[in-house]
Amino acid sequence: MIDHLTLLVSDFDRALAFYRAALAPLGYAVVMQFTRAQMPDLPAPAFAGLGAKGKPDLWLRAADGLIAPTHVAFAAPERATVDAFYAAALAAGARDNGPPGLRPQYHPHYYGAFVLDPDGYNIEAVCHKAPSAARGRPPPRLPSPPPTRGASLTRHGARRNGSVGAGPHPPNPPAPLGRAGGLPGCADPLAMSLAAPPFAMSLAAPPCREPRLRGEPIAQGEGRHAARGGVRGGVPRRDQATLLFPR
Q: d(Cα 200, Cα 188) in Å, to the nearest integer?
C-alpha cells in the first residue's frame, strides 16, 4: 500500500493553490508546509503536504529543473464527489482530460473524471462502487411469499401441513403410528421425540408392547406379579395392568 507520493511542480504557489481547491471535494486540505527559510537543510525551496483527516499523502515540491508529468488518481466515496472534483478543478484552472462518466473497459462501476493540472499532470478522481453501494444502501430484498391458506406455523417456522415455512428449520417429519412391526395405537418413543413442540412428549401415549392373549402366562421378570406366577383367572390384576401400561 502506498503511503504518500511527491509531485515536482514548476510554480509552487500556483500548484499549491490549485490542489487546495481541486481536492477540497475529496476532503483534502494543507496539513503542513515547509520552506528553505524555515529549514536550511531542505532539499528543495518549498514543500507542502496535503491530505484528508490530518494525514498528508500528497506532497508538492518546488522543482529546480525540468519535470516529467505523470498520472495520479484519488479515490472518491461516491460518484457525486467525482463530479464535484471535476468542476472544482476546472474552476481552479485545470484543463479537461475526460469528463465524469463510466469507463467500462476497466470494470462496470468504474466512474472517473480526468483533468490536467498547470504542469500537465493527469489528475483523476475515481469511484469504484455501484450507485446503491456508494450511497450506503444495500440492494433491495425480495419479500417472502405469504403462507398458504389453511397452514398454521409452528414456533420454528414450519407449517403443520408439511410445507416449508419462513423459519430457518425444515418441517418436522410426521410421527409414525406404530413400531416397525406396525402395531396400531402404539406410540414410538423416537417418533415422539421428533414431534414439533417439545412438550408433546408429555401428552403423547406411553410406549406399549404387543397385546397378550387372554389367559397367556406372563414371563418371569416382567413385573411384581411374576413372583406370584401367571395370571389370576386369565386376566391381569389391577396392579399388573398398571405395570404393563403405566399412567
A: 13
The strand pairing partners of 100, in sequence order, are none
What is the spatial order of strands in the sheet that 55-62 belongs to? 5-9, 55-62, 46-52, 29-35
Residue 13: DSSP 8-state = H
Q: What is the DSSP string of 60-81?
A: EEE-SS-----EEEEE-SSHHH
Residue labelled with grid coordinates 433491495? 140
Count the residues in the chain. 247
Q: pLDDT per residue over 47-99, tens digit each?
A: 999 999 999 999 999 998 889 999 999 999 999 999 999 999 999 999 999 99
Look up residue 113 and give its three cell numbers. Answer: 473524471
User: In Å, what is the CA distance from 62 to each residue of 40, 51, 54, 74?
Assistant: 15, 18, 22, 21
The pTM for the full model equals 0.54
123 contacts 22 by C-beta, under 8 angstroms: yes
Q: What is the pLDDT of residues 197-230, one digit of tens each?
A: 544 444 444 555 555 555 555 555 544 444 444 4
Nearest of 9, 51, 12 to residue 35 by alpha carbon: 12
Beta bridge partners, 174, equal: none
